[in-house]
Amino acid sequence: MSINKMKKEELELLSNKDITNMILEESKKPMNTAELFKKIIELLELPKTTFENKIGDYYTSLSTDKRFILLEDGSWDLRSNHTSDKIKKQVSQVEDDDEEEELPDEDEILNEEVEDDYSDDSSYEDTTEDLKDLVVLDEEDLELEQ
In order of start, what are the domains of the chain with their CATH numbers? Predict the structure, then answer.
């Protein structure tokens, strides 16, 4: 059944996202956020102030719904209309365009010698000599001494 032929009462039972899904299925072409939301307001016969007050919430709901995809030109379409091949091609083109800095190989990193933090620091003093007479006592030893 066409969305334009549905009764207002039937449409009110649907969420805005479900109505958007139906609009995009019928139109077979992507639409921007404003066009979609104006169409919903028209179908539900809502006041025109609803557009200004709720457009942000509507955009957020489309963004979080996995059925929809935001295209480069700012229009929304059904994700099902965009196969993974198309998405894969777009991603690989972006990767080809970006010049990547060559990172060192993991083996190279592991084989690097770790420098001693104190090797060049002349202010470092060996305190082990100061601590040689230090004695560690257990709590039981402390109780016996008292």
Answer: 3-83 (1.10.10.1250)
